[in-house]
Amino acid sequence: MKVRRSERLVDMTQYLLEHPHTLIPLPFFAKRYNSAKSSISEDLGIIKRTFSLRNRGILETIPGAAGGVRFIPEISETQARVIVNELCERLSEKNRLLPGGYVYLSDLLGEPELLRKVGQIIAAKYKDQKIDAVMTVATKGVPIAQAVSYQLNVPFVIVRRDSKITEGSTVSVNYVSGSSQRIEKMELSKRSLKKGSRVLVVDDFMKGGGTVNGMKGLIEEFEAELVGITVFAESNFSGCRVIDEYHSLLCVEEVDVQTKTISVIPGTYFNK
Amino acid sequence: MKVRRSERLVDMTQYLLEHPHTLIPLPFFAKRYNSAKSSISEDLGIIKRTFSLRNRGILETIPGAAGGVRFIPEISETQARVIVNELCERLSEKNRLLPGGYVYLSDLLGEPELLRKVGQIIAAKYKDQKIDAVMTVATKGVPIAQAVSYQLNVPFVIVRRDSKITEGSTVSVNYVSGSSQRIEKMELSKRSLKKGSRVLVVDDFMKGGGTVNGMKGLIEEFEAELVGITVFAESNFSGCRVIDEYHSLLCVEEVDVQTKTISVIPGTYFNK
């Protein structure tokens, strides 16, 4: 039975949103709805226009026999700025200040709506690049990695500081923790990353950049390639940072333990 | 400017999918599209029918002044069975067998499409219950918790075995690891769970049930309430399990280190 346009639009929208960055051949939809390819093309035109009007993403059409349609999630700079400004306010809340000048983030990194938006913002930065995997370090980086992975539709891998028997053989590197200058160790399951993979590194917080630098080392050990680095928040570190090319959504500029004030501004994400 | 039906359908579908389990008043959509409430009602009827036909979920309409529409993600038993059967096959792959009879899962727990489906399957079990938070233990439970949290649209909290300075004050419990009979400790940031919260516990793997039992203890310490327990996989443990009420998607029935065979069947999820 033929499916009506209105129903096709609802189902196709859902299908496209759940399969971002994936080439879907037109015959797939034609068969799914028992409809002519010309009708499917018209539907896709409507969806394309709506996504574009609402700044939700690009619907790329690839012509030819091997062609099809591909949904690339996007977010406008204006929308991203609104979200980042809201996050600045939330991060500046007095009660987030922990002993030692640390900032409490765990509640934010457990909110699904916030994570979805953060995933959209970070993924948008890399939408035109080929990425095979998202890498992060346990534990607090995981929600960020998963959120980005959902948008780019590529797997994420978790680097650990403690080896577990359930990871099988691992490859490990030593790295210097940028802020404390201690030597630490991190490892990744050997089978989790293929040689030549193009890797995006994400993390929740960057101080001296030691952890991110460790991940760079691991990527080299795996003979993989680093595509970029984006962290949820960075702190305005006075010393020498071991990482120079990265993006951050937020920047904790100053923490005053006396007056319990945290000053947070947008990070380097919007820099041209 | 008025927005046409076709465009409304695309945008509403997207909006509803990104806001599951959330009551959205009709005037919100009427304003968003500059359209009459009667048109919006008709749109919602189309979306409701399509979601229902495709077994994608229920669109609940609540009449009256305080009413609106709420999308409740679902998955049919048939669809869930197909996914679980596929997972049984993947889990039985010979090269997953690790020394000590452990099964390698980390790759599966990093695949966005699989996680999305696992989230849908687990969330569907609790769709009629009030849930305030999803709880899991670091590290491998996190992807499951986040996937479920996306579907239920409630936050997730991460219990840790190692205390971190970035968690602030914590509440800790001791628990007996079911399989090794050792006493271990786990803790949760004090501010992460409110008194009286209704909590769903999820984890990647359950052997003796000690870890899950530890989380039950923590829930009591927080004066919160346990709604249910679902694990991605359980192993057919021969000893006495310390947990009796739970669901599992998969059950590792037998592991033969000699012949390198892993036998996996669907878990208790489908039991009536």
TrEMBL record, chains A, B:
Domain Phosphoribosyltransferase: 108-238
Sorted UniProt keywords: DNA-binding, Transcription, Transcription regulation
Pfam families from the UniProt entry: Pribosyltran (PF00156), PuR_N (PF09182)
SUPFAM superfamilies reported for this sequence: PRTase-like, Winged helix' DNA-binding domain
GO biological process, one term: negative regulation of DNA-templated transcription
Stretches that traverse the bilayer: none
GO molecular function: DNA binding
Top-rank taxon, per record: Bacteria
InterPro entries given in the database record: PRTase-like (IPR029057), PRTase_dom (IPR000836), Pur/Pyrimidine_PRTase (IPR050118), PuR_N (IPR015265), PurR_Bsub (IPR010078), TR_Rrf2-type_CS (IPR030489), WH-like_DNA-bd_sf (IPR036388), WH_DNA-bd_sf (IPR036390)
Domain Bacterial purine repressor N-terminal: 4-73
Subunit comment: Homodimer.
Protein family: Belongs to the purine/pyrimidine phosphoribosyltransferase family. PurR subfamily.
NCBIfam families linked to this entry: purR_Bsub
Annotated protein name in UniProt: Pur operon repressor
Organism: Vagococcus intermedius
